[in-house]
Amino acid sequence: MTKNEQILEYIRSIAIGTKISVRQIATDMGVSEGTAYKAIKDAELLQLVSTMPRVGTIRVEKIEKKGIQKLTFAEVLHIVEGTVLGGHEGIYKTFNKFVIGAMAIDEIKRYLSDGDMLIVGNRDDAHKLALDKDCAVLITGGFSCRDEIKRIANEKKLPIISTSHDTFSVTSILNRDIHERLIRKEILMAEDIMPKDLYYIEGTQSVGDLKKKIRDTGHSRFPVVDSNRQVIGIVTPRDIAEAKDHDLIKNLMTQEPIIISKDTPVAYISHVMIWEGIEMIPLVEGKRLVGVITRQDVIRGLKYIRSQPHLGETFEDTLLHHFKIEETEKGIRLVGDITPMMLNELGIASAGVLVMLMSAAGSFAIKKEKQLDSVIDSFMIYFIRPLQMENTIEIYAEIINVGRKFYKVDIFVKHQKEIVSKAMMSAKILKK
């Protein structure tokens, strides 16, 4: 284990909320301040620590994706572009819900519970009530608070944040951000499908060692690592087809393989596997191997995504809600109206929106035919004619050519039985 990795492990062992410094880490670990500084910066990238003006570097708890709908006070501070007036030490705590203090003080009391955040203007009585109920305060309108409130906030480690935005703007900003987080929450990442068992082989091992590992594990492809478990290559049965048992893996492996991190979306991984024609990708943290993703893992992950309820919607989801999907003998038909959200600044249907709908129809047609996921390889638009708001359109996607790995789809848009747009899509299939 390298010095950097030892320091990262030490930082992980430090209690949440503890303040750390370069000098302290250098002293505790017996390393130079330069080495300690680099390790702390790496820890920031891994979300093990966070640095904030007037607070310093704090050991924080990484907020897992599954609970991303819960915000920390620090995230609220960033979202509303605020400043911390008091309670700095509690800035990285998570909280339960927002309460808007646009009511009498007795009514506010009914809605507050431990761990909430009160959004209110320059109302000293509401600030005091929130702290008494163990709640943080977000003061809108750019107002401050009394010194007594700041003192109580510091004692209780409950942040008092001030923002120049008004209450309505703050609520809108926070609602938008939470909606985006819900969408991100639904995006399956590499770490969500990564198998627990980790198999690899070192470059200094032999072909004989690899053959034994293949027999013992049932796997045929392995990442190749050095003595620090950093990925240096990939080895497959094809690489050792003509090799002798005493030959070293590092002399036969494929060097500089594609690698991914834990926060790489599964959909992106599937695209890479299709484009590059690969079956397995090493997953690293920093440069150190922490997992392996196979094509089978990706396919299982994509099936899981489709089976889950959706809490947030993408723009494409919103568009497709306005269209009815029907199966035809040759493919798929989408039927719907041009809505205001689909218009450009000239008041006609946006070309980008039409392309998005046409590509979605093409993907639906392939899915209907093959029941497999596909990745667009090329999309050629022949023409697009202007469409107005409330025009009813029909989008047809018909498969015209099927290969072993490719599908070609003819796509055209009709309005009042006239073709107003036409395109050709080519897609690659993700097979097991």
Characteristics:
432 residues; alpha+beta; Arc Repressor Mutant, subunit A; Udp-n-acetylmuramoylalanyl-d-glutamate--2,6- Diaminopimelate Ligase, Chain: A, domain 1; CBS-domain; 5-stranded mixed beta sheet; 14 helices; 25% strand
Textual characterization of the structure:
With 432 residues, this protein is an alpha+beta fold. It has 4 domains: 3-59, Orthogonal Bundle (Arc Repressor Mutant, subunit A), CATH 1.10.10.10; 73-186, Udp-n-acetylmuramoylalanyl-d-glutamate--2,6- Diaminopimelate Ligase, Chain: A, domain 1 (3-Layer(aba) Sandwich); 191-304, CBS-domain (Roll); 315-429, Thiol Ester Dehydrase, Chain A (Roll). The chain contains 14 helices and 20 strands. The chain has helices at residues 3-13, 22-29, 33-45, 73-79, 105-111, 124-132, 147-156, 167-186, 190-193, 207-217, 266-276, 295-307, 315-320, 351-370, and strands spanning 19-20, 49-52, 56-59, 83-86, 98-100, 117-120, 136-139, 160-162, 201-202, 222-225, 231-235, 254-255, 280-285, 288-294, 323-327, 331-337, 374-384, 392-402, 406-415, 418-429. It has a 6-stranded antiparallel beta sheet. Strands 4-8-7-6-5 form a 5-stranded mixed beta sheet. A hairpin with a 2-residue loop joins strand 19 (406-415) and strand 20 (418-429). Helix 6 packs parallel to helix 7 and helix 11 runs antiparallel to helix 12 (295-307). The relative contact order is 0.07. The model is unreliable at 64-69 (pLDDT under 50). It holds the Pfam family CBS. Residues 194-251, 253-314 form the CBS domain. Keywords: CBS domain.
